[in-house]
Amino acid sequence: MFILDDGIRLSAQLDMPENGAEKCPLVLLIHGFTGYKEEPHIRAVAKEFLQTGCAVLRADMYGHGQSDGTFENHTLYKWLTNILSLIEYARKQDFVTDLYLCGHSQGGLAVILAAGMAHDLIRGLIPLSPAIMIPEGARQGTLLGQQFDPEHVPDQLISWDGRILKGNYVRVAQTLYPEQAMERYTGPVLLVHGDEDEAVPLQCSVDAAKRFANAELRIIEGDDHCYGRHLDQVTRAVGDWMRRQMQ
Ligand code: FER
């Protein structure tokens, strides 16, 4: 199905919990940079939420997966308006009791920012290996392992997979302050991060766990950015935390 964000079609998958509950919480689940909603770690986390008794709405963000837009034109502002539209959609569904936000990497950064904006609507927040360093990296001139002049942003950067990312991505990221969002959102938070993450430093989640008023951090020893080694430990951490929230 597609959910519209002001005319932009967002490809989305809504699944109901395995226990067949008529009313239940809903988790909005967001992939990372260059990712999409069918990645193995996204599907595995979705399945775990369904087993805990939550519905899951996972969606491809602007310029990713099967949604409208192009990768090179994507920015975090676009992802944020996408997420706000998905929150609106979720709130209109009669079966939804509570709303949770979960996102991986750039999606983890995006759900932190969205939780700051919509702190009154969000029952819990689950950032997975959140790429919280992107805004400061954009201000310092280090992104994607490359250096640039942050005062004269290049018209394009080349991403890891060879795709072009426009300078507007950087200009947008330079304006974002995830620390403010972490202070505005005071509800429960679960951070999950592998200590051998090659793309996002574990320190991002260590710092975030201190800054949030009400956060737990689960470090997955020996795991990488997309949990290629211990995905079972990630899903268990997420499931255990969610079951406690729902008691
Ligand atoms: C970067 C490091 C990580 C970056 C993006 C990411 C745009 C995002 C990773 C992900 O979402 O998986 O320097 O720059």
Describe what this molecule looks like in 3D:
There is one protein chain. By secondary structure, this protein is of the alpha/beta class. The chain is 36% helix and 24% strand. It has 8 helices and 12 strands. It has helices spanning 40-52, 76-92, 106-117, 134-140, 167-173, 178-184, 202-211, 231-245, and strands spanning 2-5, 8-15, 24-30, 55-59, 96-104, 124-128, 142-143, 146-147, 156-158, 164-166, 189-194, 215-220. The protein has an 8-stranded mixed sheet, sandwiched between helices. The protein has a two-stranded antiparallel ribbon with strand order 7-8. Strands 9-10 form a two-stranded antiparallel ribbon. Helix 1 links the parallel strand 3 (24-30) and strand 4. Helix 3 (106-117) crosses helix 6 (178-184). The chain binds 3-(4-hydroxy-3-methoxyphenyl)-2-propenoic acid (FER). 3-(4-hydroxy-3-methoxyphenyl)-2-propenoic acid binds next to helix 4.
Task: Give descriptors for this structure.
247 residues, alpha/beta, 8-stranded mixed β-sheet, two-stranded antiparallel sheet, 12 strands, globular, binds 3-(4-hydroxy-3-methoxyphenyl)-2-propenoic acid
